[in-house]
Amino acid sequence: MKIAIAGSGAMGLRYGVLLQEVGNDVHFLDTWDENLAAIKKNHGVKVWRDGENPRMVKVNVCRPEEFNEKVDLIIVFVKDMHTDEMMNKCKHLIDEDTYVLTNQNGIGSVEVIEKYVNKNRIIAGTAVIATVLNGPGDVDFIGKRGAGSVNLVNVTEKPDSFTYKLVEEMKKAQMNPALKTNYKGTLWTKLFLNAVANTLCTLMNITMGTFAAYSNSKELTERIVYEAYRVAEADGVKLEQTREEIVEHILYVSKYGNPLHYPSMHQDMSTGRPTEVDYINGAIVKTAKKHGLEAPTSALLVDLVHLREEMRESKVLIEVVQKVTK
Length: 326
Ligand SMILES: NC(=O)C1=CN([C@@H]2O[C@H](COP(=O)(O)OP(=O)(O)OC[C@H]3O[C@@H](n4cnc5c(N)ncnc54)[C@H](OP(=O)(O)O)[C@@H]3O)[C@@H](O)[C@H]2O)C=CC1
Ligand SMILES: CC(C)(CO)C(=O)C(=O)O
Fold this sequence. Notes:
By secondary structure, the protein is of the alpha/beta class. 47% of the residues lie in helices and 17% in strands. An 8-stranded mixed β-sheet has the order 5-2-1-6-7-8-11-12. It has a 4-stranded mixed β-sheet with strand order 4-3-10-9. The site of NADPH dihydro-nicotinamide-adenine-dinucleotide phosphate has 26 residues, from helix 1 and strand 9. NADPH dihydro-nicotinamide-adenine-dinucleotide phosphate binds next to helix 1 and strand 9.
């Protein structure tokens, strides 16, 4: 399969490297100057496993506008607010045969991708896997080889031969793919996890394991999940797990799956980048409004994350002012 990775950050590098290593022809695209420069300078990317055994993996990287080859699949792995910009930069690569895969967190990217490609060629889903971008051209794959899993779901809910082929490639790459046929249900299952773990760990500056160890973590998780569950039901989402099972799953993944992980939203908060909270808890609030409901817990969390984002900027400003006035 010939694949373009649209967004070669933590997850783009992880999917791309794993699929390349099992024989796919993978081309990495990115717009972040330092990342492009580091990968080109080092003739590849530095890949760690759980912070150990770094190795250099040779990869091809360039800007989307510099790449002009026909590909079978584009894998979008930018943050949600950059999906439109990235798709626009990749639109010359899309013809009537091109498929687009997104396993981004949050709700909203598929609607953007639909502006560029017919929905029968969009494969959505979720990545139940943790990855950390240490810096430009330097990535840490959390979990042993074969750890983590991927849920794939066609937006049409009708898997076709290309989707089965992709599942096979992911199996070879030990990515543990599961093919689903419940589009919204698949995305919301991950949304519940991110609405709890990403948001609370970012606000509190803690790992998922620290959150799970909090004496009131179950009640706090229930508060967010139960509210969101009602919203999902009102939106007609077919949920395959009960509210209680979802809460149990979130606490299990936090305690045993990724206890040392700072979720991707935390990584954005600490590198001074915008977070995806509007596409996570914000999506719950937006969907609630659509049905005349309210989601006050998620609404508060969205506001608090934005407050932290702004505090981060004002802290930098205060430091600059202090230096200048010294
Ligand atoms: N990391 C994780 O463990 C997981 C992440 N996800 C989801 O996958 C999607 C992609 O996330 P992820 O791979 O973590 O994102 P990253 O932030 O690692 O990378 C996304 C893009 O952001 C830009 N970028 C990253 N860091 C910087 C920086 N310091 N300065 C400037 N630009 C930067 C890069 O290019 P550009 O400038 O071109 O945007 C990069 O391609 C998101 O929707 C996320 O929620 C899902 C499961 C797990
Ligand atoms: C919490 C985690 C790792 C779940 O897979 C995630 O989605 C993220 O870090 O954004």
